[in-house]
């Protein structure tokens, strides 16, 4: 169709590279005696290609010369979405290629030392990116939520040495085969739209923020370097077992040595060889927040490749298992009392921001949340590291959101989805906080192709990682969902008294009970209420409650909680509020400057619902965790603890 041709034109590069997962490891870049990191985020310059086909930048080869010589440029912070930075609605709503550029200096010794490998890494850029260094193309990448990198040693040594002009072109166009999917629609009625007018349609409920969303780094490794590490952990009695697998590139006879140290620096186990199992006596397990008095215990695993490379990986020793009624962490029942989030904030959009990350963790711990779901795409790895360190449990979700068009269940889409899971598992497999993979959110799982699609997707994900359960999030009716037979845990979203029977909170009890009994009756798998909630415009009040007031949001929550408290004695293993905070969406008649289902505002101030959840989560923690109330009272003022 015309729309698809247009989308292809916008994307320019063929989607042929879609099916190749990144070949090399995706170890988070850290410093070590053998590695240096230089953060080149900060102020970049920027130009949106506003030509009708969005192709002028490529035709005129904007990467060949300084971007400022091609036309007008503006300042653009990295990381940040570009959408809300300017006063220009055209930039906010821009679709197509934008160009970023920064001049950086590369330390001379990096260039001179031929044994040094220099890597350029982008934490993420939404959605499709092409990278040049000094005018030479070094890589391109499909997907808006995972890192990508290129070895630029050769280019730097061949071109102008220490000076390094980095050009990144980023395209936010979504097509039927991207994740999330979308369509470009050209409006052809000349009486209503000017020539060439097009819009981006999507089926998901968040703003399609774009740009360079996570830090851009230069880092070094020795030529012979540790490319990837995989750990899997288990324990028996007081012995922890860490199996490891190290892959080294650039050397045929790597002599790998692995040492595991406790938090006090004591070496607790070591081994030679690139594979093996470390035994840790008197193991300190990694426990979730509020489940143990010493949660989030991390060992530190130093991996040495002969004399050259050193990489240190935090390791949490824990197990995850699912029975027909329970989710077990370290063989103890775990109840998810947590939140769904978004990477979203004023001005920066989806741009990574440490103050925001730390604030959000403080808020989650304040309210007694022990878990969150990375709705609806993978978050920055720094966020997973925080969760590892604080014992916050994560359901790690892939950007399979808004898969509603039957054409998005085709072979090309499936291949890309499988590839995406490979990249996601490769990046996140070693995080103890990640306890489950979610391969999609609310797909049209009642459409016939969904049966085959999810069978493939779930089994492929399991083959990549057998140590974690796999799910997808459903909003389908239990009788029509074709993917549910394949998942380990049923995750259900429902909005009783909101999208159904608006205003009728008195129906929640009945409808929610029916929902749970139907799903459990059919599948005998544990269930998480993976979304529920109601919009509340902060400061709007009414009693008796009316929709959009803080009281209404509270009442909806209370009605859900009554049922959760019954069913969590049986097979309900968790509840995740939709949403942690208000967030931006595209403009529509059902959204008033974004989605207001947050229990915190977008500025992270509590609505009434936040206090309700806080009391509830701490009460549940007191009942289900091994903490005693006295300890909690010392950490948090008594008046907040029931
Ligand atoms: C759910 C979606 C979520 C939406 C939410 C809502 O999974 O992305 O934001 O509804 O409408 O169905 O608030």
Automatic annotation (TrEMBL):
One of its GO terms (molecular function) is carbohydrate binding. Residues 1-21 form the signal peptide. It catalyses: a beta-D-glucuronoside + H2O = D-glucuronate + an alcohol. It is an enzyme of class 3 (hydrolase). InterPro entries: Beta-gal/glucu_dom_sf, Galactose-bd-like_sf, GH, Glyco_hydro_2, Glyco_hydro_2_AS, Glyco_hydro_2_cat, Glyco_hydro_2_CS, Glyco_hydro_2_N. Residues 320-621 form the Glycoside hydrolase family 2 catalytic domain. Residues 224-318 form the Glycoside hydrolase family 2 immunoglobulin-like beta-sandwich domain. It is found in: Lysosome. Its EC number is 3.2.1.31. PROSITE patterns: GLYCOSYL_HYDROL_F2_1, GLYCOSYL_HYDROL_F2_2. The keyword rRNA-binding does not apply. GO terms for biological process: carbohydrate metabolic process; glucuronoside catabolic process. Pfam families: Glyco_hydro_2, Glyco_hydro_2_C, Glyco_hydro_2_N. Residues 38-222 form the Glycosyl hydrolases family 2 sugar binding domain. Inhibited by L-aspartic acid. It comes from the Eukaryota. NCBIfam families: PRK10150.1. Homotetramer. Plays an important role in the degradation of dermatan and keratan sulfates. Belongs to the glycosyl hydrolase 2 family. This is Beta-glucuronidase. It comes from Cyprinus carpio (Common carp).
């Amino acid at each position: 169709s015309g729309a698809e041709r247009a989308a292809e034109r916008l994307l320019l590069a063929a989607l042929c590279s879609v099916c190749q997962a990144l070949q090399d490891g995706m170890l988070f870049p850290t410093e070590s005696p053998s590695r240096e990191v230089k953060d080149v985020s900060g102020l970049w310059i920027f130009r949106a290609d506003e030509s009708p086909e969005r192709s002028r930048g490529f035709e005129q080869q904007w990467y060949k010369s300084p971007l400022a010589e091609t036309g007008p440029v503006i300042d653009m912070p990295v990381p940040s979405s570009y959408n809300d930075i300017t006063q220009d609605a055209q930039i906010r709503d821009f679709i197509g290629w934008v160009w970023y550029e920064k001049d950086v200096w590369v330390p001379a010794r990096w260039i001179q030392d031929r044994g040094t490998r220099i890597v350029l890494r982008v934490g993420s850029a939404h959605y499709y990116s092409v990278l040049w260094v000094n005018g030479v193309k070094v890589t391109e990448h499909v997907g808006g939520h995972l890192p990508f990198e290129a070895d630029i040693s050769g280019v730097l040594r061949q071109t102008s040495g220490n000076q390094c002009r980095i050009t990144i072109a980023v395209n936010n166009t979504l097509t039927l085969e991207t994740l999330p999917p979308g369509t470009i629609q050209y409006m052809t009625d000349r009486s209503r739209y000017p020539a060439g007018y097009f819009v981006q349609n999507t089926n998901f409920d968040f703003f399609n923020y774009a740009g360079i969303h996570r830090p851009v780094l230069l880092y070094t490794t020795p030529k012979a370097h540790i490319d990837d590490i995989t750990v899997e952990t288990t324990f028996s009695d007081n012995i922890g077992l860490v199996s490891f697998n190290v892959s080294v590139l650039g050397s045929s006879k790597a002599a790998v040595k692995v040492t595991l140290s406790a938090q006090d620096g004591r070496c607790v186990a070591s081994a030679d060889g690139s594979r093996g199992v470390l035994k840790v006596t008197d193991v300190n397990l990694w426990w979730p927040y509020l489940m143990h008095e010493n949660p989030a215990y991390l060992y530190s695993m130093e991996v040495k490749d002969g004399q050259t490379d050193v990489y240190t990986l935090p390791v949490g020793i824990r197990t995850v298992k699912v029975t027909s009624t329970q989710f077990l962490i370290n063989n103890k029942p775990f109840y998810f009392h947590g939140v769904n989030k978004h990477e979203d904030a004023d001005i920066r959009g989806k741009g990574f921001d440490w103050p925001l990350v730390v604030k959000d963790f403080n808020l989650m711990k304040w309210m007694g949340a022990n878990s969150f779901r990375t709705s609806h795409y993978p978050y920055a790895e720094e966020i997973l590291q925080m969760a590892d360190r604080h014992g916050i449990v994560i359901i790690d979700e892939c950007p399979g959101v808004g898969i509603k068009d039957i054409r998005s269940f085709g072979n090309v889409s499936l291949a890309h989805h499988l590839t995406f899971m490979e990249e996601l598992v490769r990046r996140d497999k070693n995080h103890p906080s990640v306890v489950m993979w979610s391969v999609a959110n609310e797909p049209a799982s009642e459409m016939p192709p969904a049966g085959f699609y999810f069978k493939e997707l779930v089994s492929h994900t399991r083959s990549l990682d057998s140590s974690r359960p796999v799910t997808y999030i459903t909003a389908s009716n239990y009788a029509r969902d074709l993917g549910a037979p394949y998942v380990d845990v049923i995750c259900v979203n429902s909005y009783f008294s909101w999208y159904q029977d608006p205003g009728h909170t008195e129906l929640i009890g009945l409808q929610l009970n029916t929902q749970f009994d139907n799903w459990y009756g059919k599948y005998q798998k544990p269930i998480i209420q993976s979304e529920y909630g109601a919009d509340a415009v902060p400061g709007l009040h009414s009693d008796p409650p009316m929709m959009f007031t803080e009281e209404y949001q509270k009442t909806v929550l209370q009605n859900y909680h009554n049922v959760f408290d019954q069913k969590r004695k049986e097979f309900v293993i968790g509840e995740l509020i939709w949403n942690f905070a208000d967030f931006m969406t595209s403009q529509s008649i059902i959204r008033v400057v974004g989605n207001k289902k947050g229990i915190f505002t977008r500025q992270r101030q509590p609505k009434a619902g936040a206090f309700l959840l806080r009391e509830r989560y701490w009460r549940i923690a007191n009942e289900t965790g091994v903490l005693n109330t006295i300890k909690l009272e010392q950490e948090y003022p008594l008046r907040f603890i029931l």
